[in-house]
DNA sequence: TATGAGGTAAAAGTACTACAAATAGACGGT
DNA sequence: ACCGTCTATTTGTAGTACTTTTACCTCATA
């Protein structure tokens, strides 16, 4: 689930490093990178490996290379913002407040719709997966177990939509939940408070009640949104 | 807007070629590619260029390379289905009926929500962009002009949400509209029939009426969905 | 027979070099 | 002042050599 990012490869490290620099804004759009030969030398690596890393970044829409001109960082409009790596890099360097808002907004749009679709089309096996995740949440004895089960729950719901485009949005939910747990770590005491919400969603999906599922999920996300707000105020 | 796909680079071509083969299912998940040296020779290119192409595909989650084992196609779950290229490759080899359904479902979820958000948060400039696109649709004198303006309209709405995660979903809308026009080409005569829908959306965004915008957009998408259905039946 | 240590080879990963292709920008001619 | 041409710079491609990882085979041992 959560990838180790061990990335022991050389270009893996470089992808990560450059990606983070760009996404965090330390290298701004329009700005151009040193030419390959020089950059490779500066990072003490071969041009070959560097180029492979750059290809990956360009695949994610972060950079663009042209002969003679060199390589420049593209406008944020062109970034694959939904790419798991891009999202992760964005969160690494302290997610800004408004980014968290945007993540929550996405959840509010995606998840209720997904829950409804799941209630409509889920197979028996997919229901089992949702149930299993719910049970794991109920049984969780610490925050780690809870977060793992929580993620599994939301992923199972997305899978139950039987729409792979939907499933690909899991990267967003994953990131959103990740930052949520990071922000509301204070609630480590009663981390299970949202269990009833999850139960309602699960029940609605089981009973094939799309509208019920939508509303339950909507409440859950709205609740977690207000929770973040509360936490932020408490800290301010 | 629509990228030329000229992709004169060698590895650009290879990315496209391999990507299409994988996404279309001609090379199935789990299956492994010939080893780099051999594949490079078979495609009459250098290993260097081939590897750069493969890095891009692995960045999109399509393949995975490990030493000794070789390179294998990953399960579809891991594909970045929302990536513009992946979507395009998928449509190139005859989009299946259920894929079109999934695209429409995504539109039904995303666009009404986007319209509502745009009505809430659009700036003056963003409104101008939406208006300009609408005017262009009204002024369109042939199908090409219409499709271009239509795309611009939907893109402008997404931009007006001021949420870049939302904006990244434009690739999905673009693909959906593309296949829509491809399918309902028969309506080339009265291609402007959906103009009133667009007007309502535009008006609601102008007047900052989120719920109105949501409903108008919802109707628009629902209408185009039923239009596809009708067309399919007519053909069958 | 099972099991585990160790060796081997095969494939990807990295490095270096050389050259090709494109093109921004300078140069020069009209 | 304009327009073609030339040049230098930077990415793109190729080829080769070597390194690292690791699946799998071998064989000794329990």
TrEMBL record, chains A, B:
**Residue intervals passing through the bilayer:** none
The reply on keyword Transcription regulation is yes
* Superkingdom in the source lineage: Bacteria
Q: Which residues form the HTH gntR-type domain?
A: 8-76
Keywords recorded for this protein, A-Z: DNA-binding, Transcription, Transcription regulation
Q: Which InterPro entries match?
A: GntR_C, TF_FadR/GntR_C, Tscrpt_reg_HTH_GntR, WH-like_DNA-bd_sf, WH_DNA-bd_sf
Q: Name one Pfam family in it.
A: FCD
This protein is called FadR family transcriptional regulator
Organism of provenance: Dyella lutea
């Amino acid at each position: 689930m959560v990838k180790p990012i061990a990335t022991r490869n050389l270009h893996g490290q470089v992808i990560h490093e450059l990606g983070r620099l760009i996404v965090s804004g330390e290298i701004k759009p329009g700005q151009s990178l040193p030419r390959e030969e020089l950059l490779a030398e500066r990072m003490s690596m071969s041009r070959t490996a560097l180029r492979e890393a750059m290809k990956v970044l360009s695949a994610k829409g972060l950079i663009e290379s042209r002969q003679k001109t060199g390589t420049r960082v593209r406008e944020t409009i062109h970034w694959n913002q939904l790419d798991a790596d891009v999202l992760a890099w964005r969160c690494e360097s302290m997610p800004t407040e408004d980014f968290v808002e945007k993540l929550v907004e996405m959840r509010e749009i995606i998840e209720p719709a997904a829950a409804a679709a799941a209630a409509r089309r889920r197979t028996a096996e997919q229901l089992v997966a949702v149930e299993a995740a719910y049970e794991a949440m109920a049984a969780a004895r610490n925050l780690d177990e809870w977060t793992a089960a929580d993620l599994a729950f939301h992923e199972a719901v997305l899978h139950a939509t039987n729409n792979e485009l939907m499933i690909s949005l899991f990267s967003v939910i994953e990131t959103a939940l990740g930052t949520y747990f990071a922000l509301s770590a204070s609630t480590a005491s009663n981390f299970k408070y949202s269990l009833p919400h999850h139960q309602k969603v699960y029940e609605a999906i089981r009973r094939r009640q799309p509208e019920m599922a939508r509303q339950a999920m909507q409440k859950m996300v709205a609740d977690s949104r207000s929770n973040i707000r509360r936490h932020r105020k408490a800290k301010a």
